[in-house]
Amino acid sequence: EVQLVESGGGLVQPGGSLILACAASGFTFEDHVVAWFRQVPGKEREGISCISVDDGLTQFGDSVKGRFAISSDSAKNTVYLHMNSLHQEDTAVYYCAADGGTTWYHFINGLDCFASMEHWGQGTPVTVSS
Length: 130
Known about the structure:
The chain contains one helix and eleven strands.
């Protein structure tokens, strides 16, 4: 069974840091792009970051550039989102997604990675509050 499972969400104070993890089962991240999105109720889903695991190509949304980082561990088949200098505006449910088809191909050829994805996780909530 193909599955993505996010972990690491929780409550953090403004200015703090948090690391989210996205673990895959039933497939490997080889030849895939793995992306993080977030969504707040009543707002559109926002692309945060993505990585092509094979070559380390990354992309970041404008709202998190310079604050967030993304990394992968092929041995663990896991991708991490490193969130620093968190703001209250970063409060959302964070979703991991992966694609090994059109979006992956377009991304490694220079296009946007925040497009349709084949697989989605259930999400992990992040709350930034004092």
